[in-house]
Amino acid sequence: MKIQQLSLFLENRPGHLIEPMQVLAREGVDVRTLSLADTAQFGILRMIVSDWLKASQALQNAGYVVKVNEVLAVEVPDRPGGLAEVLALFQAGSINIEYLYAFPFGRAGKAVIIFRFDKPDEAIERLRKAGVNVVDSVEVYNSGMTA
Amino acid sequence: MTQTRETVETHYHPASAPDYIPTPMLKKLQLERLRAIVQRAYDNVGLFRRQLDERGLAPSDVTCLDDISRLPFTVKHDLRDNYPFGLFASPMQEVVRLHASSGTTGKPIVVAYTAADVKVWTNVMCRTFSAVGVGPSDIVQNAYGYGLFTGGLGAHYGAEGLGATVIPISGGNTDRQIMVMRDFRVTAICSTPSYFLHLTERAAELGIDMRELLVRVGVFGAEPWTDSMRRHLEACSGIKAYDLYGLSEIVGPGVACECYRQDGLHFFEDHFYPEIIDPQTGDTLPQGEEGELVLTTLSKQAMPMIRYRTRDITAFITAPCACGRTHRRMRRISRRSDDMFIIRGVNVFPSQVETALLQVEGTLPHYQIILTRQKGLDEMEVQVEVTAEIFSDKIGALEQFEARLMDSLERVLGIRVAVRLVEPHSIQRSEGKAKRIIDKRNA
Fold first, then answer.
1. Could you tell me which CATH class the domain A3-69 is placed in?
2. Who contacts B370 (Cβ-Cβ below 8 Å, separation ≥6)?
3. A39 contacts in chain B (CB < 8 Å)
């Protein structure tokens, strides 16, 4: 259910994004989706990759500080108001959405959004009860091949 | 005295005998040696003779230790102006060794030793190792640089003179250092504190927990470091980290060192006479007040230094040390008067930055201070490496960390300065003296 997301600290300077990508290329790891959060001075690169363990080790060996967090890939109806309906589930209550970003592969009228919740297990429970599909991790890691 | 007897004896080595001379005898010895060295410098060093003549003084005017304050100072540019051999007091056939400082600007400083000087140097370094509990059964990894720098050979002669096993590995080649430390069952190490920090980090990366190795003592010197750094080094390596002080102009390492109490550095006063002066007026300060350390070599033959201004800021510790040594102590030197820079009218020392950063949990002492000039104003930025411990996938968490660093710096420095988080390993690791300040103000 839960997906392992890798985060990397990068200085906000020209050329700093290419190096981790080259590390992953050498290891034959595919990037499924990514998001770059940036401030004036630094950025945090968040990625879902085909083999997070291999990628994490390779990046750490290359000297990066890597964090692994659990995120959820949530299916959202691909129509106006679709995301709002899912967000409404978390409007009240104790579960916070830290951030979210899109997943490039949707299917049959559904978009997939990566959610970083502060309490992923409780979030899964709430999404399930509301009949919202949380995409299986294996499907996400292999998405490039199946879509 | 009686309660310290046991500890004195367990740390006692015959070479340490002069450390316990009763004070009146020590003073008598110092005066005798001071008078002789002033005479020697007057007879053999042109600069010193001219300076005394200008003041209408003769060597015989030194009749008590306090008379030293009537003598002229020697400063660093005197050594540069007399490059390379102008301040030698021995003919070259009596000189057995030359060393030179790194000389960051222009010509280096050259220093000379006779055979007797090398013996004294060996003796004070033996006493240094002995004071921190290193003995003949220890295996000492000497990671100070060998060469023109005095650190390598100074520590080498001292440890060897004590009968310890010395590994003359010199600085650099970090992975090999770690292999040697483990495989050769090293029990004591000498290096700069910043290089030892680098060693512990690299060991951790290689999956080696330094706390599980046999190394138990580190003798660190050649650059100012703080008590916060000491605590950090001790916690992550499991060793006892001792401060060693010296400068090539005086002898090299071995001018003063901590004893096992880790409470100030004892001067080897039978060979080096310390004073603390007001750096502005040059006046001798009352005991216990902070000022610039001035040193006189009492026995150096090849190159006597009379009242050499070290630029290091410290104070005498007036209480006697529980270790039983009678030689005076100074507080650890964490700043040099020429390290100081002024930001928005406030005096800042690199050591204050280190202290402030290490007060924030999760920070490693990998930092650099960047000075720039913007619109005629000096600006300071502190770059700090992000560690796995503090890194988060959330921007907010990193910004909060930055804010904590800025707050801590503001509390210590009294001004708000910029903090920039940088990638791990992006600040250059030093194998010798760490470069803490990048000054781009005149770039």
1. alpha beta
2. B380, B381, B382, B383, B437, B438, B440
3. 395, 399
Structural domains present in chain B: 1-337 (3.40.50.12780), 341-439 (3.30.300.30)
CB atoms closer than 10 angstroms to residue B281? 9
Report whether B438 contacts B371 (CB < 8 A).
yes
Instruction: Spell out the domain ranges in chain A.
Output: 3-69, 71-141
Q: Facing residues of B274 across strands?
A: B295
- Tell me if chain B has a CB within 8 Å of the CB of A48: no
Q: Which of B391, B399, B420 sits opposite A9 (nearest CB)?
A: B391
Q: Which pLDDT score is estimated for A105? A: 76
Return the CATH fold of A71-141. Alpha-Beta Plaits (3.30.70)
pLDDT 10s digits, A86-133: 999 998 878 999 999 998 877 778 899 999 999 999 999 999 999 999
Task: Indicate the DSSP class of residue B94.
Answer: G
DSSP assignment string, B5-69: HHHHHHT--GGGGGGG--HHHHHHHHHHHHHHHHHHHHHH-HHHHHHHHHTT--GGG--SGGGGG
- CB within 8 Å of B319: residues ≥ 6 apart: none
pTM of the model: 0.79
pLDDT along chain B (443 residues), means of 10: 43 84 97 98 97 96 97 92 95 96 70 98 97 95 93 96 96 93 97 91 91 96 89 95 96 96 97 96 94 97 97 94 95 82 81 88 84 83 90 92 93 90 86 82 77
Chain B interface test: which of A41, A56, A115 (most B C-beta within 10 Å): A41
Q: What is the CA radius of gyration of chain B?
A: 22
Q: Do A63 and B425 touch (CB under 8 A)?
A: yes
What is the pLDDT at residue A147?
A: 39
Task: Work out the number of other CB atoms within 10 angstroms of the CB of residue B211.
Answer: 14
Euclidean distance between CA atoms A132 and A77, whole angstroms: 9
**Among candidates B317, B358, B353, B357, which has minimal Cα distance to B335?**
B353
Q: List strands edge to edge, sheet with B329-330.
A: B165-167, B139-142, B188-191, B217-220, B240-247, B252-258, B265-267, B329-330, B316-317
E strands within B86-129? 95-100, 110-114
Q: Can you tell me the ipTM of this complex?
A: 0.85
**Among B390, B423, B425, the residue to mutate for chain A (most A Cβ within 10 A):** B423
Instruction: Say if CB B190 and CB B155 are below 8 A apart.
Output: yes
**A/B interface, count of CB pairs below 8 Å:** 54
Contact B378, B344 (CB under 8 A): yes
